[in-house]
Design goal:
Largest sheet: 6 strands, mixed
CATH superfamily of one domain: Transferase(Phosphotransferase) domain 1
Number of strands: 13
Number of helices: 35
CATH class of one domain: Mainly Alpha
Distance between the termini: 42 Å
Structural class: alpha+beta
Length: about 725
């Protein structure tokens, strides 16, 4: 929005840049006053990453700014050759975030942040044209787009490509009042382009660009998870779902910068091979590997992949490099266990994934009673080999050493739970009950029993009034033994949320569960049952993404991330995640269920029916699958089959049937019927209902019944 000249300040003998206000605008006294007033404000911003303003003036009818002369290229020019390397993009982004934070704290917003307004110099990034867009190009906050001046020169003669509009916040494009969070959105759009090499919002006309800004999610892009989280949150459509200050953005970027460091040590512990004559001893070799994972997770700065993802490679003949790449780690621990009578032989070897060479290896021949000492020795050796340090001794990290029979029963239970079939789940409960009977002070076994009952309650396999008191009792017992157990606090947080509807207590419990540096992925995953219902949507997304950094192949976790993205309104990313889960396991019915709902909400009925049929075929016992299939069949015109399927619910009194009816009728926009059945589901304390209400908020929000349902589950603050 002006002409810039290179000049020499003869008084101070320095090169400066002089920017002149265009003659067409200079003739307007209002623009001249705003120009000078804003320039005075910017002159007060003394920051190493803001282009310094030396002087402002008016001479011979010309308004001008005298600024610091910068040598380098703008980000727009740099992007002509492709995306910036992640480390460089992060460094630049942190500098600009710090500059914007300084300005915002002094009451100044930029309003025209774009790649062309950021210069890359030898001294770092420099923010240009501060405030000019607000005063000149975009008018005052709340101005209607139709009243704005002709777009700047980066629009073609036909108006087909618009630069500034592609970085506008939605509220800015709609002419609504603005605050600093509009800059947060624009910053996210710039950062997206820096990392991906393409614009977040495209189009061949102004109308298409604005439509994309208002309605579309940017295409998924490749970036470290921590950095991708920052970009996604900055680009939230609603200001309340973004970072609220640039200081928060800067802090998140600094965290992402640490996470992206190539020097960060990382490890995956593969399931140890069972070389015992009795093949039933596989539970023991698995348990040994998991215990090593648990100890390693407490090493500061060491990224440790969780069991679910590491064990996904069992029985697969894959190269170490391939496994390490899939899990995002630099080293792999593998080993074997041979058990004979009371003796045990354990071999372990730590491998550098990139070079394929051994960093450490050892063989242990011990008595079975020494199994815990073996685990500690291996963990300590790995810490030394990776040049890291255990925060405390491994024996301290264990909290408690159970007696050997109870420990074996506990390992057998974990092994059976991993198989997920009904008969193995039933056996798992028996092993856990045996473990706590053999050693009543075994807190982890009590807690695992609580998780077992929660796993039955969540999909409707066990009535909540039967299951949730058992979950509560097991978690409380675990905490009475070990008051520091995060998983037990998380269990009680879930009970408080989806059974007691006590959201304040749930928040308190999850705060306790999530404190500390080593938070198990499972704790982050189940925080969804508090975060989604209360409307902390972006927090739910971030907790899942953080958990998946350590457990990237956890299918339930990925499904839940996709669900959170869908509820947040990021449909494209949600569908991508749902499909990713099906690519990993085509029989994973939860992903098919999620995809069907996504398709139904977007009017893609043939696809919705296809995925609903898939989910129903795998899990016909899930009442939500029944209700979903009936709904999409009705919407597709097959009312006869839809009624036949709904008929399997009978009078709807059986546990879970009300939730099935509710999902059917809400998708068919029969709000009163949906609300009637949702009330019955609340009476059953069906744990799916709080998330259900948040998921279909956009469909239901206009109905007074929706607000009444929220009050029934104590979510009055969600009511508009």
């Amino acid at each position: 929005m002006g002409e810039v000249y290179r000049a020499r300040d003869t008084r101070l003998d320095r090169i400066v840049a002089i920017k002149v206000l265009p003659e067409a605008l200079a003739a307007d006294p209002q623009f001249r006053d705003r120009f000078e007033r804003e320039a005075r404000a910017i002159s007060s911003l003394n920051h190493p990453h803001i282009c310094t303003l030396y002087d402002v003036g008016h001479q011979d009818g010309t308004n001008y700014l005298v600024m610091e002369y910068l040598e380098g290229e703008t980000i727009a020019q740099r992007l002509e050759t492709g995306a910036l390397p992640v480390d460089e993009a992060l460094r630049c982004a942190i500098e600009i975030a710090d500059a914007l934070d300084k300005a915002h704290r002094q009451g100044i917003t930029h309003r025209d942040l774009k790649p062309g307004n950021i210069m890359l110099t030898k001294a770092g990034a420099k923010l240009l044209d501060f405030g000019l867009a607000k005063s000149i190009a975009l008018g005052m906050a709340g101005a209607d787009l139709s009243s704005l001046p002709t777009p700047p020169p980066d629009v073609t003669a036909q108006g087909t490509i618009v630069g500034t509009f592609q970085y506008m916040a939605p509220e800015q494009a709609e002419g609504r009042p603005l605050d600093a969070r509009a800059d947060v959105f624009s910053f996210g759009a710039v950062l997206y382009e820096m990392v991906s090499g393409s614009r977040a919002f495209g189009g061949s006309s102004v109308a298409q660009v604005l439509s994309a800004v208002l309605r579309d999610d940017p295409r998924p892009f490749e970036a470290p998870p921590a950095l991708a989280r920052v970009v996604t949150r900055c680009l939230a459509k609603q200001p309340g779902q973004r970072f609220q200050t640039m200081a928060d953005v800067r802090a998140a970027l600094e965290h992402a910068s640490q996470k992206s460091s190539d020097a960060e040590p990382s490890i995956a512990v593969l399931p140890f091979a069972n070389l015992s004559a009795d093949k039933e001893n596989e539970y023991f070799s698995d348990g040994l590997a998991e215990e090593i994972i648990n100890v390693l997770a407490h090493i500061p700065g060491l990224k440790v992949i969780a069991r679910t993802s590491a064990f996904a490679f069992r029985g697969k003949e894959q190269d170490i490099r391939t496994i390490a790449q899939a899990l995002g780690v630099r080293s792999i621990l593998e080993g074997s266990v041979r058990r004979s009578g009371t003796r045990i032989r354990v071999t372990a070897q730590l491998i550098d994934a990139e070079g394929g060479h051994h960093l450490w290896s050892e063989r242990y021949d011990r008595e079975m009673a020494d199994v815990f000492a073996i685990q500690d020795d291996i963990a300590q050796a790995i810490a030394s080999a990776l040049q890291t340090k255990l925060s405390v001794a491994p024996a301290v990290l264990r909290r408690y050493t159970p007696n050997l029979p109870a420990y074996e029963a506990y390992l057998k239970a974990l092994h059976d739970i991993g198989h997920k079939t009904p008969d193995r789940l039933a056996r798992a409960r028996e092993w856990l009950e045996q473990a706590v009977a053999l050693d009543p002070k075994f807190a982890l076994a009590h807690n695992a029993l609580g998780f077992y009952y929660l796993r039955l309650a969540l999909p409707g396999l066990m009535p909540a009034h039967d299951a949730m008191p058992l979950v509560r009792a097991a978690a409380k017992k675990a905490l009475s033994i070990d008051p520091s157990l995060p998983e037990a606090y998380a269990l009680l947080g879930v009970v408080a949320a989806i059974y007691d509807y006590d959201w304040v207590e749930s928040e308190r419990l999850f705060r306790l569960a999530l404190r500390g540096d080593s938070v198990a992925p499972l704790v982050r995953f189940i925080s969804e049952f508090y975060l989604l219902p209360v409307g902390r949507l972006q927090d739910a997304v971030e907790e899942h993404e953080r958990a998946l950094e350590e457990d990237p192949l956890n299918l339930v976790g990925r499904f839940q991330l996709a669900w959170c993205l869908q509820v947040t309104g990021m449909q494209a990313q949600a569908v991508t995640e749902f499909r990713r889960v099906l690519d990993l396991d085509e029989s994973f019915w939860l992903a098919a269920y999620g995809l069907s709902i996504a398709c139904a909400l977007n009017g893609m009925l043939p696809e919705a029916v296809q995925y609903a049929e898939k989910a129903y075929a795998v899990a016909p016992w899930a009442t939500t699958n029944t209700g979903l299939l009936a709904a999409v069949l009705r919407l597709s015109g097959d009312t006869r089959r839809a009624e036949e399927i709904l008929g399997t619910f009978g009078d709807g009194r059986s546990y879970g049937a009300p939730s099935g009816f509710a999902i059917c009728y809400v998708l068919c926009s029969e709000h009163d019927k949906a609300a009637d059945w949702a009330e019955k589901a609340i009476e059953q304390r069906d744990p799916r209902i709080p998330v259900f209400l948040r998921t279909f908020e956009t469909i239901w929000r206009s109905s007074p019944r929706w607000a009444a349902l929220l009050r029934q589950i104590n979510l009055r603050d969600m009511v508009a």
